[in-house]
Design goal:
The protein is α+β, with helices and mostly antiparallel strands. The chain contains 13 helices and eleven strands. It binds flavin-adenine dinucleotide (FAD).
């Protein structure tokens, strides 16, 4: 197995790291204090610089104006961008737009690509993905309640969703809705593009998450669809293919999320080490001399390196045997890396003492917002269950045969 970094990506990586360090990280505190909307002129200025550098939309196919980097190359870049909370946005590869661009590129009709993918790829508009509901379990979306009923050449959508990330200010949503209630559970739903100026759509509120309602791209909305009418041609892919498309979005998407988390871990560890060296408990007695702190540094180094190798192995399996065969690897990195993320950020916060609780460093922001890593894209427990079930099934089959 070859886990070395492809030669092609080394240069991109060091240029992107230098840009993040010089142009973005120094403005982090201001971004955290001002919020997304007031920071938008600054973010647009930085986006223009990234366009000049030639890295805007690293993962977007060239035909839509992106850089067209491969799956593994983008994963490695995602680690560099994870070191600053708004770097993915500045490079136009932020969730949920990146996932939406991916499925529009793969399943969109030529008209959908022109109308929705092209302006997303150029950074002119934003989008959101609307699947989870307050009144049904996100862990088992086959029993979701939102419906899309055909009336002539339109769908009429009714439903109540929440945690539709980045809906505030988005131009359209990709909505998961039941279109075939009598079909097999995984063939009941379809994905439908809903422009958010369609009558009947309502953004109820930006949900307060860990004390912050957020705004714009950095927010999670509760939304309602009340008799929302959109043409049937707004359906993405086949009738009833909603879960199939969602699955295709999640496999490579998890690699990118996990690599972003590695970037967050590296940044938190950097901040922790700097503080451990500079903070003196007594004259000439830096915090770094204490064994507990040294243990945390060593354990974090080992945890991060183990997690990164595991992600690269999963990516390599996706590339060599396909996402289906690599299902266990993909599920395992989701819960394993989310756990490493939590531990490393927590150790950094503890090392900083009271400073760790403030927004004077980015650690508290990561601590608040990345707790969700163990919940979205499938909670830990669901991934552990599916990994264990497959292992047990394989053993049972071997023991029988
Ligand atoms: C910050 C954030 C952003 C999000 N962004 C989006 C988005 O953009 N679009 C979108 O559609 N959704 C989004 N989500 C929603 C997310 O996908 C769901 O929260 C997730 O799928 C879990 O669903 P649920 O919250 O309904 O939890 P539930 O399904 O109610 O599960 C609750 C808990 O039960 C336990 N559990 C569940 N199933 C099992 C099981 N089989 N065995 C043992 N224990 C189990 C787990 O501990 C789980 O955390 C986001 C969530 C967060 C927190």
């Amino acid at each position: 197995m070859d886990f070395s970094v492809p030669e092609s990506v080394r240069e991109h990586r060091s240029k992107i790291r230098a840009f993040v360090d010089k142009e973005l990280i120094p403005h982090e505190a201001e971004f955290l204090a001002k919020g997304f909307n007031k920071s938008l002129p600054f973010l647009e200025e930085k986006r223009a610089q990234v366009k000049q550098l030639g890295y805007f939309g690293p993962q977007i196919p060239k035909e839509f104006g992106g850089v067209g980097l491969g799956f593994m190359e983008f994963a490695l870049i995602s680690e560099e961008l994870g070191r600053c909370p708004f770097a993915h946005f500045v490079f136009n590869c932020q969730a949920p737009d990146a996932g939406n661009m991916e499925i529009l590129a793969e399943f969109g009709t030529p008209e959908q690509k022109e109308k929705y993918l092209r302006p997303l790829a150029s950074g002119k508009i934003r989008s959101c993905f609307s699947m989870t509901e307050p009144d049904s379990p996100g862990s088992n979306p086959t029993i979701m309640k939102t419906t899309a009923v055909k009336e002539g050449d339109h769908y009429v959508i009714n439903g109540h969703k929440w945690f539709t990330s980045s809906a505030d200010g988005a131009t359209f949503a990709i909505v998961m809705a039941v279109t075939n209630p009598d079909a097999d559970p995984h063939e009941r739903a379809s994905q439908i593009i809903v422009p958010l100026d369609t009558p009947g759509y309502k953004n109820v509120r930006n949900i307060s998450v860990m004390g912050e309602p957020g705004e714009g791209w950095a927010s999670h909305s509760e939304v309602k669809y009340e008799n929302v009418r959109v043409p049937i041609t707004n359906r993405l892919g086949d009738d009833g293919a909603g879960f199939h498309i969602a699955q295709s979005r999640l496999g490579p998407g998890r690699i990118h999320h996990c690599m972003r988390w590695i970037g967050i871990c590296e940044r938190s560890l950097e901040i922790m080490i700097r503080r451990a060296i500079s903070r003196e408990l007594a004259p000439g007695e830096p915090l770094a001399r204490r064994q507990t702190i040294q243990n945390w540094i060593a354990e974090s180094r080992a945890d991060i390196d183990a997690a990164r190798l595991m992600i690269q192995h999963a990516a390599w399996r996706i590339d060599t045997v396909g996402a289906k065969e690599a299902r266990n690897n993909i599920s395992a990195i989701k819960f394993f890396v989310a756990d490493v993320l939590q531990k490393v950020v927590d150790r950094a916060l503890q090392t900083l003492g009271a400073l760790g609780m403030t927004d004077d460093t980015v650690v508290a922001y990561y601590f608040r917002h990345e707790r969700a890593a163990r919940i979205y894209d499938g909670p830990d427990e669901v991934h552990k269950l599916t990994v264990a079930r497959r292992i047990l099934q394989d053993y049972a089959a071997k023991m029988m045969g």
